[in-house]
Amino acid sequence: MSAILLDFSMPIITKRLTIRPMQPGDGKQLFAQVEKSRDNLSQWLPWVNHVRCEDDCEITARTFYAEYILRKAFHLVVCLDDKIIGGVGISQINWTIRRMNVGYWCSLNYQGKGYVTEALNALVDFAFKHLGAQKLYILCDSENTKSINLAERTGFKIELEALGVLDHPGNGALRLGRQYGIYA
Ligand SMILES: CC(C)(COP(=O)(O)OP(=O)(O)OC[C@H]1O[C@@H](n2cnc3c(N)ncnc32)[C@H](O)[C@@H]1OP(=O)(O)O)[C@@H](O)C(=O)NCCC(=O)NCCS
């Protein structure tokens, strides 16, 4: 079946959070959160340096919404009481073998409270149940302790560690990175 025909219900509701597709109109809130956490996020996420104004975020939100409709990627925002506090997403999808890359970020003000653990557990469940994922994987810098802790806390297992397994923001030097995986 073509991925575009996949049906499922949205949003994903967890104990404390609402997780929904990024959509037109989200640019303003997204930019505010990125601005507050820019130094923290830009250490690990290349896209943060390319987001310099509300319009950049609005363009991203609209592009991601289009990709969501096409089932090319699932960039979801994590909301607490209607406020966007972070994001979780599925991209780099290989529909033939149903292997998918998972990513996440959280506004600095909301880190350390277990919100991303809650959102990631829900995303993994969604991917296995509704997208038919066989394998989900995370790529993260070997020095990104918070991301490593999160991956391990949500049941992902380390599969490899090597130089240059991911893009790292900055000078283009090869960084040591890890791949974590989880299977249906
Ligand atoms: C990676 C990132 C999302 C992790 O955020 P986080 O806040 O540590 O993750 P959680 O929301 O799951 O919170 C976990 C922390 O809250 C604590 N916590 C409190 N209540 C909790 C609960 N109910 N459940 C789980 N953890 C809880 C945990 O002990 C943990 O703290 P610790 O790391 O000091 O042990 C965040 O650091 C981030 O956005 N980093 C920048 C972007 C990035 O690196 N993205 C990943 C690229 S690979």
Q: Which oligomerization state do the chains in this entry correspond to?
A: single chain
The CATH architecture assignment turns out to be 3-Layer(aba) Sandwich
> What is the 3D shape?
globular
Mean pLDDT reading: 95
- Unreliable stretches (pLDDT < 50, length at least 5) are none
Instruction: Please name the CATH topology.
Output: Aminopeptidase
* DSSP helix fraction: 25-40%
Terminal Cα separation, in Å?
19 Å
Strand portion, in percent?
25-35%
Structure characteristics:
184 residues, alpha+beta, Aminopeptidase, eight-stranded mixed sheet, 4 helices, binds coenzyme A
Tell me about this structure:
With 184 residues, the protein is α+β, with helices and mostly antiparallel strands. The protein has a single domain (11-183), classed as Aminopeptidase (3-Layer(aba) Sandwich), CATH 3.40.630. It contains four helices and eight strands, in the order ββααβββαβαββ. It has helices spanning 27-42, 54-70, 115-130, 145-153, and strands spanning 12-13, 18-21, 74-80, 83-94, 99-106, 135-141, 157-163, 176-183. It has an eight-stranded mixed beta sheet, sandwiched between helices. β5 (99-106), α3 (115-130) and β6 (135-141) form a beta-alpha-beta unit. α1 crosses α2. The radius of gyration is 16 Å and the shape is globular. 30% of the residues are buried. The model has no long low-confidence stretch (mean pLDDT 95). Bound molecules: coenzyme A. Coenzyme A binds at residues 40-41, 44-45, 104-106, 111-117, 140, 144, 146-147, 149-150.
